[in-house]
Amino acid sequence: MSKVEPREASPDEPEPSKAGTPTWRGATARPPTPDGSPPGTGAAPAALAGAAPEAAPGALAGTPPGTGAVDGRPRPGAPPGGVAGPGAPPGAGARPAGGARGGGRRSPVRRREALVGLAFVAPMLVLFLVFRFGPTLGAAFLSLTDYRLSGEWTFIGAGNYTRLLQDDLFWESLGVTAVYTALYVPMTVLLALGTAVLLHRTLWLRGFFRGLFFLPYVTSIVLAAVIWKWIYEVEDGLINAALGVLGAGPVDFLGDESLVLPSIAAASAWKGFGYSMLILLAGLQSIPREVAEAATIDGASAWQRFRWVTLPLLRPVLFFVLVIEAIQAFQVFDAMYVMTAGGPVRASYSLVYFLYDSGFKFFDFGYASALGLVLFLIVLVFSLIQRRLIGREED
Amino acid sequence: MARLRLPVLLVLVAFVTVTPFVVMVLVAFAPPGGRTLPGAFDVTRASLRNFTDVLQSADITRWALNSLVYSLVSVLLILLFASMAGYAFAKKRFPGREVLFWAFLATLMVPFQATLIPYYILVSEMGGVDTYWGLIVPTLANSQAVFLMRQFIVQLPDELFEAAKIDGASEWRVFTTVVLPLIRPVLATLGVFVFLWHWNDFLWPLVIGQSEAMRTLTVGLATLEGENVTINQIMAGATITVIPCLLVFGLLQRYLTDSIATSGLKS
Question: What is the ipTM of this complex?
């Protein structure tokens, strides 16, 4: 049996060609030979093969996965699940799947397959370790420090968080973001639902119109913001020019504290509704035709059919779209950066804008990280609500 | 009457949807100087002056080059790495496979902005500020790409790969000659998405490309204002940035819209 040593946790060991080996090395304490044939005793790969299913439940707590899987292995000496034979799974957590695979466990074919698999995942794994898992843990850590531009820092515990709670700017930006979300989500989803229903009902040039409605979605928010900023302009803007012809206006859409958020939300809704429209359209098309037909035979009007037949059946898709758009809305930044720079008087100063300023204007990295974590928690709550609702829907 | 209502509504919504694009183009081609409206609607006086002016006053060609490098290199590398990882997750048994796949997916829950600061510190410590690699490499860890690849490859029958292996082909050969051709439709779809994500990306290029020469077109467009540029020139710049999106969209519209409906891909 190979010796299992504690793995030196270095998430970023760059071994481009054989970078799949960290996990492997952790378990065997020996790197494979360059030609890829496994080193050490034949037991090593068997141990590795057993690690996967057993480690799965325990390693979910956010540890870097490669390491988690290996560390979750049984101690040396404790036989890996399934070795004693498929019929008698010994260790706790040994699942039937492990036993079923016991036959091939020791074969060089399996060992080779594992190596090949790891080698193929390796480039992505390294990228994820360095640029996803690392920074995520880093954010949590940074938020507990007063990390500055100089790179100097001290551990200040919950200092940033208590400061957040007392910071008017934080509450203001949170309020702005919440109001923006409350405006953007209904606008976008109603627009998406309306266009989806229109497209669903029509056969005339459906592909053409679908493409047309989707067009704004493939452009950038920056582009949308630049165009709409001009559309909203007091002097010479499109809307005010039209209002002028009618003898009304001018309206300062982006300069008025109570108009600025609805105006930005409308521009963003124009840019973003195409995505939800496609999802909702797919949802509509998955509703069996017979259901609507039955309702028609029962004498239901078009509105009644929509309200009492289509809408309830569409509910899971609607929930999905609502939550996705809400998550999107809570991260708003680009539109405000371009259209208003957060103004007037911070009336459009969003949470991410505050985060951006804290980090890249005041170089208060620890504080900005704490803001990032708050954002993450909010998004997480949205996701959990979604799971809840959709889960219940499926029951 | 009711029969007519539907098409009329459709045309109306379509009109509102394209109006911002139309006015962008009109203003971009309007004769410079004077009031923007209503002169912009006089198409007989269209001119290219705003385009030549904005190309002179800002380094748009350089920004366009940066955007192209950022988008195209990312597309190529993400397609390669994600299809490799997707193949392994779908067809190879290796230790930690389930956990790893789960962990890749879990990163979808973390908004990019939430980790922006450590991301930036990391890349800046590595010397990646104002470099192409600093811009590109961190964005390659794309979990949606891996997920999409795995979901597609997992439904391909094993026999396809086994046959090639029995013929003595190496694993890499199987991958390049069997797997890659089979997944061409996903490669196309994902390629379009990754291109658009990167071409339209704003926050990351904004913080990592600090010199003017390292701006992407999207960042450049956002910073055009206030640099003594007229609205006509800004719209000319905007028109330039949107051309690649429209090209990609025009060519691959079907791939794009179908895959959202079936897989819910989202930036």
Answer: 0.89
